[in-house]
Write the structure tokens for this entry.
Amino acid sequence: MFSLRRPPAHRLSRLFATSAARSGRAVVYAVNGDPATVLRVRSVPALPPPPAGTLNLQVLLAPINPADLNVVEGVYPSKPRADDAVHLPTHSVSDPLDTGTVWVGGNEGVARVSAVGPGVSGLGVGDWVILTRPQAGTWAAERAVAAADVARVPDAEALTEAQAATLTVNPPTAYNMLSEFIDLAPGDWVVQNGANSAVGQAVIQIAKARGLNTLNLVRHRPEIDELKQRLHALGATQVLTYDELADKSVRDKIKAWTGSKAIRLGLNCVGGKDTALMARLLGADAHLVSYGAMAKQPLSLPTSLFIFKNLKSHGFWQTRWYSMKSAEERAQLMQTLVNLIKENKLDTPAHEVLTISAAQTDEEATEKLQEAMVAMSEGRYGKKLLLKIE
Amino acid sequence: MFSLRRPPAHRLSRLFATSAARSGRAVVYAVNGDPATVLRVRSVPALPPPPAGTLNLQVLLAPINPADLNVVEGVYPSKPRADDAVHLPTHSVSDPLDTGTVWVGGNEGVARVSAVGPGVSGLGVGDWVILTRPQAGTWAAERAVAAADVARVPDAEALTEAQAATLTVNPPTAYNMLSEFIDLAPGDWVVQNGANSAVGQAVIQIAKARGLNTLNLVRHRPEIDELKQRLHALGATQVLTYDELADKSVRDKIKAWTGSKAIRLGLNCVGGKDTALMARLLGADAHLVSYGAMAKQPLSLPTSLFIFKNLKSHGFWQTRWYSMKSAEERAQLMQTLVNLIKENKLDTPAHEVLTISAAQTDEEATEKLQEAMVAMSEGRYGKKLLLKIE
């Protein structure tokens, strides 16, 4: 991986020539590096009619997930394939990243089938689909894909674009962490940190739907009461800040809440030393499952928890889950999640749509996108960002 | 738990009265605290003939394991039972620890059956046994125990006292860690730190007997070449210091050794940040098993190993293993280990015998024992210490 310095915004306009006859656009990168520097909005040629076994898709809405930025940076273990590269006409010899061979960013999103190639069965124009192959590139108005690389969204008519666009990463992560490591029965407790993350919110809702209790840990913030209310409204049983957890008297409170029932599943997206406080809440023979590392510090746990309380520490990666499971199992999971959405038991986390408008030039759109990337890297988005390319 | 200051050695003699008619002695403590302060050698009355269902034992040799000192300190999760307390006549009103109600230290050791109570079958005078109930107290010349709390040492005639006395903690820990977490086939690799610990030496020998390769990590020391030779003589495939491991070029060396075969089992008794270096040597879907924390720092591992390489971190505690298994399974494990000893595939680690001589008074013996405890706490014993009460 290597990184480029971001050119000052006022110089960006000189790096791009205006595209006269674009038919769609895509958010692309030619090299790995800081997303605020290497991402470009580029006009791309119209797709030809789909060859045999393939589809043309119109992407409706695609999340910009933190992991997607790690892919752009080149530090994520899951990468696009070499043959996912898109070859574009170069516009500007003065833009070192306008190399003509680029990758489209994005891993998740919902698309509408716009054309079906010969020999494709079970999918028709107008169907909503998601891409099942990781890192295939969803940040584009249109994509041409192998029919084998998509799955039809079940009951799409019942879903909003935002619900369908965010269906394949966070909700299945939450669902699987609640079911793959330990059998939980209604009334059992689960503890999680980073509880207001997108996965955390899905955990709260899916746990609630299963009759499980959740003890949710969040950072203190000025509007903590509002956040607690919001998580309670989603179905959180209890919410504590890490500061509240550090107070020794809280142990008695938690014992009263749980009726001294051992908590045997902990979900971690924070890491560092603070996670040890959460791990100490777990009873004997418990499982700690990590799916993120927001503190950017190693997971640090007392060895005694492993030896004397038989704690087991695992990781969970939805990409790996998909790679281990059959198409039928993947479809079954999606149906389960869609059913929860239809029953109003699972909703999309708070989000904001970043629109790349047809009225903007590539240069204007790139500048807007790069500003959003800077804001995201500085943690100024509290909400999930969804990309809409008009 | 509470801790007492150690009285100066020259005052100890005033704290004890000489026992005129002792029939045996024991190493006891009346309160939890620093072993160098709270442990006493006390003369104890002769045992009466054993009641029904019980045995009298003559303890031949008993290790002083680090965990035993943690029990004395009161910081170990496994503790003696209340009814294990021994009631002794008090000798000295000026010794605050001469309270009359004391616990005998020690968890491991070999004893000879000296008398058999009515209704006990399968055990006879002269049999060698080990105590199967944790923390029953082995640091004594004699003990009276329930027959159900002992197991006969198989093929005792083929074993030395030291081999039998150290049979129940370290070798089974090594054996079970090599078999309970992942199926290993001959030629597979295992990596371990603290490789010159008693468990580490057993791991090397048992792995060698199974045709497994070991990559052994040890601290650098002046006599490192000698240590490496000693571990190689036990059967170690490769030995590296942590300093050598920190050098990036070692990765290629390890790849050449293993033929790029993934290492899927790591054994940890160190903890802290250095263990991450070892964990990074593990391939996908590996297991890291911790059985000690010599660095006295939390186990600190990159979360990415859990998420993207599917690392699983466990603990192993032989006491728990015994509590989960039947008497038959425990006997089978002991037979397996005795067979390895008889085949000269497993030997006792380097050790030193601390003898409490019949010629010493209780005061003299206590002073000698407390000096040994100070030396042990300062890490001045490189060898395992075995207690012999004449």
In short: The longest strand of chain B covers residues 54-64. Chain B touches chain A at residues 77, 268, 271, 273, 276, 290-293, 298-317, 320 (CB under 8 Å). Residues 1-21 of chain B have pLDDT under 50 and may be disordered. Chain B has two domains: 9-166+348-389, 170-320.
